[in-house]
Amino acid sequence: MAFAQLSGYIISMIITRSEIPEMKCRAIPCLVLRFTPLAIIFLLFASPIRAGDATPQSRLAALQSRVAKRDFAGDKLRLDLVAFTRQQVGMLHYLAAIDILRHVPSPLDALDAREIDAEDRKMLALPDIVAYFRAHGRAVAHIAFNSDSSLVATSGWDNVVHLHKLGGKEPVSFAKIDGSPSGIAFHPDGKLLATGCGDTRVIVWNLSTNPPKEEYRLSGHKNRPFVVAYSPTGKMFASGCYDPVLRVLKFDDPNPEVWAVLANEKTVSLGIASLAFSHDGKHLVAGSHIGKESLRVWEVSGKFLNEKTLNAFRARTVACSPTEPIFAFAGDDETVQLMRIGAERVEKLHAIRAHTGKNLPPIVKALAFAPDGRNLATAGQDKQVRLWSVTTGKQSAMWTLPIEPRALAFASDGRHLAIVAGDGTVLVLRLGALLPARP
Questions:
Q1: What DSSP designation does 115 have?
Q2: Domain hosting residue 371, numbered range
Q3: Gap between the Cα atoms of 326 and 349, Å rounded
Q4: Is the same domain home to 129 and 98?
């Protein structure tokens, strides 16, 4: 095992939880490091940092050293770790950095359940809840955190995209922009937000201004875009619709360039409803609104869009692991399937009977992988949110809500899960006690 990954695991093993007295919130997992002499020797001498040595391994070691010293003042350490994880997406050191980031205070740690109305707390009856707020006048369709979890964005059936700032005892409204129930996607650097419009366009918003301003208008679809997605590096962008079914753009230059378009297809699936790039950005996975053979996987690392041959699967919702070539999908029924993308074929890992329901499909409403790829969250018609081990396919936690959940998103700290509901509300759960450090 490489030094950076092994030392990341050792850091995780010697971390215990405590309170951060200077932050006025409860149950905040943080660092109290108890080093053995062997651990100190390992960290200091196994990979010495030399002047001018700026390799990913040395940078990770330097970040580990700052974590060991609890250098949390000013939030710079966390932001440096977030930047490092973005640069290491799909590479060896990404997982070690994510493991460490879980133990560094984040903006969501300041959320305080006591700020939730007492009647709402009683109605929700969720011991892990730390925030509850109304983001939309109608049902919420999608939710996403930016890379450093300082912003959360939602899109709703009121044709509004609502952004909230995080870092205080409760989320604070930052901006409302014209949108639609279409998907939303933050650029990996957190400075841009892509939203589908009520017409046929996708608009990319610059979030460095208040209010946000339009950075790009991306046209080309004939109908309202249903979903949008950035690749992990932000160099590719995809949007799905009824026609063209798929548009893929490259952002290598300042101006986006159309790289691939699927239009006028004679296929058994129609209307891409969900899109996700693989952890290394080499594959794009899609599910569709209509069709029995609606799971599709394309290679996007070559010169052309190349579709992989799959068995026939019904897929409406898809999600990709941020750490491995694994993805999850759900169709109309209660099953969630986990698959691995191999060099030659796509292989089945687990089939999970995740939720129950008697209403019109889909029964499984949403999927979301935790940042370290170890856990998968699912939401269903049964008004439940469940947490599953990706390795074993076994359930590790469950929450029952008073209203049906519609979408899910993990914060980058891996310790907070946001849930949006059909009544326009957003809930945030704190999962610190449920997600132990990677052994």
A1: G
A2: 110-430
A3: 9
A4: no
Question: How far is it, in rounded angstroms, from Cα 296 to Cα 314?
Answer: 10
CA 376 – CA 321 distance, rounded (Å)? 9
Kindly report each contact of residues 206-211 with a partner whose C-beta sits within 8 Å and lies 24 or more positions away, as own/partner.
Answer: 207/146, 207/151, 207/163, 210/174, 210/175, 211/175, 211/177
C-alpha radius of gyration, the chain, whole number: 21
Edge-first strand order for the sheet with 283-290 is: 270-277, 283-290, 296-299, 306-307
Residues 124 and 98 in one domain: no
Q: Quote the pTM value.
A: 0.86
Among 53, 81, 105, identify where a domain stops: 105
**Count of domains for the chain:** 2
332 and 240 within one domain:
yes
280 domain residue, yes or no: yes
What residue spans of 388-432 are helical by DSSP H?
none
Structure tokens at 99: 């493991």
Last residue of a domain, one of 105, 120, 143: 105
- Look up tokens 């070690």; give the residue: 96
Q: What is the pLDDT of residue 433?
A: 57
In a domain, 438, yes or no: no
Both 197 and 86 in a single domain?
no
Spacing of C-alpha 226 from chain mean position = 18
Asked whether residue 77 falls in the same domain as residue 130, the answer is: no
Closest residue by Cα to residue 237 from 197, 296, 286, 194: 194
Model pLDDT for residues 226-243, shown as the tens digit of each residue: 899 999 999 999 999 887
Query: Do 428 and 143 touch, CB atoms closer than 8 A?
Result: no
| Averaged pLDDT, groups of 10, the chain, 439 residues long | 44 38 35 36 39 76 92 91 91 90 93 96 95 96 96 96 97 94 93 91 93 93 90 95 87 86 76 94 93 91 92 94 97 96 92 93 96 96 96 95 96 96 96 59
Q: What is the largest CA-CA distance in the chain?
A: 66
306 phi and psi angles, rounded to 5 deg: -125, 115
Mapping DSSP to helix (H, G, I), strand (E, B) and coil, where does residue 376 land?
strand
The tokens of 362 are what? 């889909």
Instruction: Please tell me whether the peptide bond between 362 and the residue prior to it is cis, using omega within 30 degrees of 0.
Output: yes
Amino acid at 71: D
Q: For position 200, which CATH number holds?
A: 2.130.10.10
Determine which helix (DSSP H) or strand (DSSP E) holds 123, and give its type and residue range.
Answer: helix 118-124
- DSSP character for 309? P
- And the tokens for 10? 């050792």
Cα–Cα separations (whole angstroms), residue 354 to 285, 343, 377 = 21, 28, 10
